[in-house]
Amino acid sequence: MAAYSLLINGQTRAVDVLPDTPLLWVIRDTIGLTGTKFGCGIAQCGACTVYLDGQPLRSCSLPVSEVGDAKITTIEGIAGREAEAVQKAWLAHDVPQCGYCQSGQVMSAVALLQDNKKPSDDDIDLAMNGNLCRCATYVRIRAAIHDAAKSLEG
């Protein structure tokens, strides 16, 4: 076991875990923030997406020992104009079906809109690549991202 101090959603959290514990399990099991989901465990599905210093990454494959002093943001801590626009568009387009993948989908969509205010279909496909949805709501996800981008104009 080793002691780590993690900055998660603006709060410093002290944890005592094994160095090779994936960040996902520290977030979910040790800290109790269960919005970030376990999907595949090999960084392929996107359900475990969080931000590390503002960049989306798969938390299931990152050992807590490699986080250092990076700022971690989970779905519970996401905020700002882009986040609000995505959340509203998600509801308007009735994107979730089972909802399991949605925290990762939302995290990736918000990151896209923070970098690209007017994404094309190709931009969306590239940014969302690797975010799997078993319910196949990809058409609604793309439409919601376009609507969120439009709402950010002006």
At a glance:
It is built from 5 helices and 5 strands, in the order E-E-H-E-E-E-H-H-H-H.
The number of E-state strands comes to 5
Q: Uncertain spans, ≥5 residues at pLDDT below 50?
A: none
Indicate the radius of gyration in whole angstroms: 15 Å
Outline type: globular
Largest beta-sheet details: 5 strands, mixed
Determine the mean pLDDT.
Answer: 97
Produce the secondary structure layout.
Layout: E1 2-8, E2 11-17, H1 23-31, E3 49-52, E4 55-58, E5 71-73, H2 81-92, H3 102-115, H4 121-128, H5 138-151
Parallel strand pairs: 1-5
Antiparallel strand pairs: 1-2, 3-4, 3-5
Structural account:
The chain is an alpha+beta fold and 154 residues long. It contains five helices and five strands. A five-stranded mixed sheet has the order 2-1-5-3-4, sandwiched between helices. Strand 1 (2-8) and strand 2 form a beta hairpin.
Notable traits:
16% strand; 5 strands; 37% helix; globular; five-stranded mixed beta sheet; 154 residues
